[in-house]
Amino acid sequence: MGLSTLDFSEHEQTFLDQFITVSAPFFDKISQHRPDKLSQDLILGLLTKSHHEALDNYQITEPKAAELKAMFSDQVGAEHAEKFTELSHDELIVISMLWFLTQGFTGIDYSYANDHALETAGLLDDEQQTEEAERYRTRFMQAYYTGIEVAKKQARQQADSSPFYVTLKKHLKRLFGNK
Hints:
179 residues, mainly alpha, 7 helices
């Protein structure tokens, strides 16, 4: 679905690996109970649920994390305080990237994705700097567009390999003398 093309920091990649490890058995169970549903629709559902949980978790833990970061800054200096990473921050970024990737892949409307990208980016911008929020929104929408491109590529590959297309192509080649 385009996951390998997304850019994650080292911390984010670690969380991504953990998220996939934990979520895969749950997704397998969902897939077994809902064989009538497309995998991408089930993934979208799982990631929508995960995104809401990550948002809630971030909103609950972020104020305390900001206090800890301020305390670190006061005690050990701003340079060392910047090394402090908060897990719910990485969790929200990674799950959001996956969610937007899946939205693009499944054809969710741009305005819906962009509205949620703006909202999530605004939450992540702890210093209320519009440049930082825009960087987050841009990353989220890049994931969305990656999903769209991967879906288009897969659709072209499926169309190129469909029995009708292959048969038509052979007949046209024979008709026009291209063997």
